[in-house]
Amino acid sequence: MPGRHSRRSVLAAISALPLTGALSACSGSGSASTGAGSGETSGTKGRTTVTFWSALRGSQEVVDAFNRTHDHIRVDFEQIPAGGQGGYLKLSNAARAGNAPDIATIEYPQLPGFVIDGVVRDITGAVSDELRAELLPQSLDQTTFDGRVYSVPLDVEPMVLHYRKDLFDRFGLDVPTTWDEFAEVARAVRRTGGDRRITVFPTDGMTLMAALCWQAGAQWFDISRGAWNVSMADAPTRKVAAYWQRLIDEDLVHCNATGSRLYDAQVGNGLILTRLSGAWDAGAQMNAHPEQKGQWRIAPLPQWDPSRPALGMHGGSTFAVTEDSRHPEAAMEFIAWQVSHPDALKARLSSGTSSMYPAATGLVPVGRAAFDRTYYGGQDIYGLFEQEARTIGKGWVWGPRMTATGSIMQDAFARAGAGSGTLLSSMRAAQAGTMPDLKALGLATTQHST
Hints:
Blueprint: H1 7-16, H2 21-24, E1 48-54, H3 59-69, E2 73-79, H4 87-97, E3 103-107, H5 111-116, H6 129-134, H7 137-141, E4 144-145, E5 148-149, E6 152-153, E7 159-164, H8 165-170, H9 179-191, E8 200-202, H10 206-216, E9 221-222, E10 228-230, H11 235-249, E11 254-256, H12 261-268, E12 274-278, H13 281-288, E13 296-300, E14 317-321, H14 328-340, H15 342-349, H16 364-370, H17 381-389, H18 402-417, H19 423-440, E15 445-447
Helix pairs in contact: 3-15, 10-11, 14-15, 16-17, 18-19
Organism: Streptomyces thermoviolaceus subsp. thermoviolaceus
Pfam families: SBP_bac_1
InterPro entries: Bact_solute-bd_prot1, SBP, TAT_signal
């Protein structure tokens, strides 16, 4: 497999010092010893051709815009399915066969796993100072391990509170600014009778639970002290789990999957008054429920301590250069253009309504100009996102096998929602189920159970 050390050698390096310069030796800084850097070309008229896989909407439009304006590089694009059993499985299988694309879209939670598996390469030396300066530090933090960069962020998604202003007005409710106030509003909504609740606790919401715990200061995974240290029931997580367990026990929230027809009906019928999610969800709401135009607004997520505002991130994607790439320099040129050039974001947004918050903060005016504010009553939601993104905490680390970890957690959440177990026992089950995967990878591990 071109440019790739064996799986065993990669794991041996990580076991000693996870996600560090030892792993970067798999490709070298920038990894430009092959492909475009050695003068290889492909395609017609001497152009270098690179392949790009993505499940993101608007990617074809971005590729078309790039190909129209660049003569020396051509991007061949393939739309792949989203999810662990779709595009990620396809990417893993292609990497094992030695024919992964030059560029792949990888969400933040899945990136460490692809790094450990040797699928993506160290691009530290290929990320220019200019590009680094354009990116929100919290986004680059999520793609950097021990000072080594493995992908370039496209967007960063601060958690916010989406709320039904018309229903808040009807019931005389104030928008909560703290979690204590949120619980009081939840009780007030419950007293109105009927099936309305303040929100849904998502039984399929591993990333949402992570964002809530991130906000509270949790650190599920830590890669200091030469090992993967796992603590998915630390004090901040216990606080978050106890809070939401209380809301569930008092029947103040619905408890079901958000990726379901039931949830869509709950939103459509006004049975939930708030949605807790990333900035991207504003556009998703507009697409899913155009009939609710003018009824929704967005506010900052409630805080535990308003004097020290903090947030977690919910959603977001990155672009990585694979170890199989024969043209890493050309691949990086396309990635840098895709995440930082106004024409790239304009092309992506031309595919439909989106409220993604770009990691390159200079593109915020492009997103703001393209967004139709009338759905949210004229509110400048990008101004709010800009303010909130600065409070995303740095230092959060995703685990090496978040798809498997999330599956265990969500199965336990579903049981807890049905009255069998609790959210805290779900977190402990997720930790217990995670450890065998880490050990099977040959990683040095510790765990802290509290």
